[in-house]
Amino acid sequence: MENPLLLFPQLNISASKEKSYYKVMKSAAEEEPHKASKPRVKQKRNRLSLLLQKAEFQEGHQLSKPGSLTKAASVVSPEEAMRWAESFDKLLSEKAGLDAFTRFLKTEFSEENIEFWMACEDYKKSKTARELLPKARSIYETFIQKDAPKEVNLDFQTKEATSQHIEQPIITTFDVAQSTVYRLMEQDSYPRFLRSDPYLNLVKGRNPARPTLRRRSRSFTVNDFQGVRPDFTIW
Questions:
Q1: Do 73 and 201 form a contact (C-beta atoms < 8 A)?
Q2: Where does the RGS domain lie (predicted)?
Q3: Domain 78-204 belongs to what topology?
Q4: CB 189 within 8 A of CB 108
């Protein structure tokens, strides 16, 4: 008998090994895509989680800023808010009133006026002549010169008179320009502020309701994981 395995097929050990080997290779080939998909699935979920956390943090951060209207309303009494209507000077003399008016001007895209007024107030507090020059140049380049990043609305004569004193500034260099912007805010922006809903709510003691943070739906990610078998080891 040259080849006994041919006479007894049921004892053909080599054939059995080949069949078993084929099954093992087939099983490995079927599982390979699933194994390869695990890192991709995990990466997708990690990226999604980070994006959601970042977005929710930014929402919460915006709502909790010190200058937010919600916080301002919680610390200002109706009596204090009513005093702001006595005069424009009274409004600016109180920090809470100045902050509320500044936020109002931002809604009208004219906050450069109050910023210029505050810069001039700080300029007049300079104690030495050496402090005046850098402050004067900064104010002029920011608010007054042509095409300044926060240029205020001044007439030609006021701009010219102010620019002539920039190289040798004195404590009153910006007085005329500051008075012009002050009157503009007093006659135009201040009356609108007193009629605005945020101010009227403060007078009535109504605190603006804080927006509720909503969880973002994650259902849009289902398509990314279709055909993938659950594997809790990747969480």
A1: yes
A2: 87-203
A3: Regulator of G-protein Signalling 4; domain 2 (1.10.167)
A4: yes
Alpha-carbon distance 99 to 66, whole Å?
11
Q: Give the DSSP letter string of 14-37.
A: HHHHHHHHHHHHHHHHHHHHHHHH
Q: Where are the domains of the chain?
A: 78-204
d(C-alpha 118, C-alpha 152), whole Å: 13
**Contact predicate 206/12, CB 8 Å:** no
* Distance, CA of 174 to CA of 140 (rounded, Å): 9
In the chain, the DSSP E strands lie at none
To 10 degrees, what angle do helices 111-123 and 175-184 make? 150
Work out the angle between the directed axes of helices 175-184 and 156-163 (0-180°, nearest 10). 150
What's the average pLDDT block by block, 10 residues per block, for the chain (235 residues)?
Answer: 47 48 50 53 53 44 40 74 97 96 97 98 93 96 96 96 94 97 97 97 72 40 50 49
Query: What's the CA gap between 152 and 24, in Å, rounded?
Result: 80
Of 86, 175, 87, the C-alpha closest to 124 is: 175
Q: Give the CA distances from residue 212 to residues 11, 59, 60, 231, in Å, rounded to whole numbers and listed in that order.
A: 75, 10, 10, 34
- Cβ(88)–Cβ(101) under 8 Å? no
Burial letters 127-164, b for 16+ CB under 10 A, else e: eeeeebeebbeebbebbbbeeeeeebebeeebbeebee
